[in-house]
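Why should sequence recovery work at all? Because a backbone constrains its sequence more than one might expect. Tight turns favour small or flexible residues, buried strands favour hydrophobic ones, and helices have their own preferences. The token representation captures these environments compactly. In the example below, the structure is given first.
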């Protein structure tokens, strides 16, 4: 998730990382490290409880400043106001039940709680505790109140807890905490929008064990989903591939073009639809019910039929506030073919790439595209990671949506 080369929103951000006394405090070391790697300036605050679990020296070595833990530091007489006023973001990970209660009440009797009260910066809290404590009405009430005050939460996950127990209450992963931080500090230019992205090549059955498919690996679609969430959108990813799920994104697994069509149609009221999937144009007309055997039989003839081009339907039904983006993977006449699809499918944008060029398209980690917009503008995006390409596509989407009624 940390991509300083790609212009992470964490680059140059001043982040106070508060660590409270729970067994998950050791994971805060990884959070600190990831933030620093992404270019953030990390000022750690350890509570007295946290120091029972992790050593100051570790944070001193890995963060950008030495650990602070007291309001009564002789070198800095008012550390809480300095930290609170200069922070771009305060993260508390892990946050114990006690921290949540103190913060809710506005208590300020140690450096971390005082800093939380002394700041106007956004605050991200990652609670971690035993399941019984997490589910206690007092804790849930504190969480609800803090949320209502616009405190951001990364909910705990289900999993193994201290003492061999298992259940809800385990600290969210450091990757997830850092991704949430990046989203809070990001441009937020897709906030409030619901975005659907499709990814991967569809697989059309010949028989129960064989399929017709294509070379798409879904990487560009996943990068689009990740970018949309990082820019504040609520994201659904309809996918034929089994890549790691992007943080915060709802993934709907599908296999065939027909399944993809049904999945997209169930969310086709969304604001932005991005058809990055390579949907099969043809499928076996009559897939065999049993595996086709080579022994004793002739070489089979597979009759194909056309799949339904549901992007055409989406284009026809498009509302005045919807933005629909298609992809055109071409091996020749790139611009002409892409412009034809833009018009025929009534799209707002089409992303054209020449999949025969080196490092471009299917399976690569990089891509190079031309974004053609229905208003006649076009942007050539030079070779870059698929995340950089994804952000260029959303820049174009944001621009187009700026002209909506
Ligand atoms: N698409 C779709 N349903 C299909 C086929 C394609 O929704 N059955 C979408 C793709 O996801 C892509 C766009 O249509 O966003 C263009 O797909 P492409 O295969 O490049 O174009 P086709 O319309 O199939 O044209 P051609 O086969 O001539 O390239």
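From this structural description, the recovered sequence reads:
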């Amino acid at each position: 998730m940390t991509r300083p080369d790609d212009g992470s929103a964490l680059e140059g951000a001043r982040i106070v990382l508060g660590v409270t006394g729970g067994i998950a405090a050791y994971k805060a070391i990884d959070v600190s490290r990831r933030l620093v790697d992404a270019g953030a300036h990390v000022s750690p605050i350890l509570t007295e409880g946290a120091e029972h679990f992790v050593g100051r020296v570790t944070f001193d070595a890995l963060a950008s400043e030495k650990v602070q833990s007291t309001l009564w530091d002789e070198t800095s007489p008012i550390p809480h106001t300095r930290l609170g006023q200069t922070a771009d973001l305060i993260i508390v990970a892990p946050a114990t039940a006690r921290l949540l209660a103190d913060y809710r009440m506005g208590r300020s009797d140690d450096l971390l709680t005082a800093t939380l009260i002394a700041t106007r910066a956004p605050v991200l809290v990652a609670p971690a505790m035993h399941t019984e404590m997490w589910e206690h009405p007092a804790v849930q009430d504190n969480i609800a109140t803090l949320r209502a005050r616009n405190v951001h939460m990364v909910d705990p996950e289900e999993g193994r807890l201290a003492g061999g127990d298992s259940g809800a209450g385990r600290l969210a992963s450091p990757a997830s905490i850092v991704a949430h931080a990046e989203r809070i500090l990001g441009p937020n230019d897709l906030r409030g929008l619901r975005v659907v992205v499709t990814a991967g090549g569809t697989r059309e059955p010949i028989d129960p064990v064989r399929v017709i498919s294509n070379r798409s690996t879904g990487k560009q679609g996943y990068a689009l989903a990740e970018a949309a969430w990082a820019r504040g959108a609520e994201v659904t990813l309809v996918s034929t591939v089994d890549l790691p799920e992007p943080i915060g994104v709802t993934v709907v697994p599908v296999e065939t073009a027909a399944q993809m069509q049904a999945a997209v149609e169930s969310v086709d009221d969304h604001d932005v639809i991005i058809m990055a999937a390579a949907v099969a144009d043809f499928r076996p007309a009559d897939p065999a019910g049993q595996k086709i055997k080579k022994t004793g039989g002739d070489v089979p003839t597979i009759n194909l039929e056309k799949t339904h081009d549901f992007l055409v339907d989406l284009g026809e039904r498009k509302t005045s506030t919807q933005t629909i983006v298609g992809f055109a993977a071409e091996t020749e006449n790139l611009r002409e073919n892409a412009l034809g699809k833009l018009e025929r499918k009534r799209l707002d944008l089409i992303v054209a790439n020449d999949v025969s060029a080196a490092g471009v398209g299917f399976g690569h980690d990089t891509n190079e595209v031309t974004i053609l917009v229905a208003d006649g503008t076009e942007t050539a995006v030079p070779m870059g990671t698929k995340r950089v390409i994804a952000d260029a596509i959303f820049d174009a989407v944001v621009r187009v949506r700026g002209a909506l009624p």
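A few observations help interpret the result. Residues 386-402 form the longest helix (17 residues).
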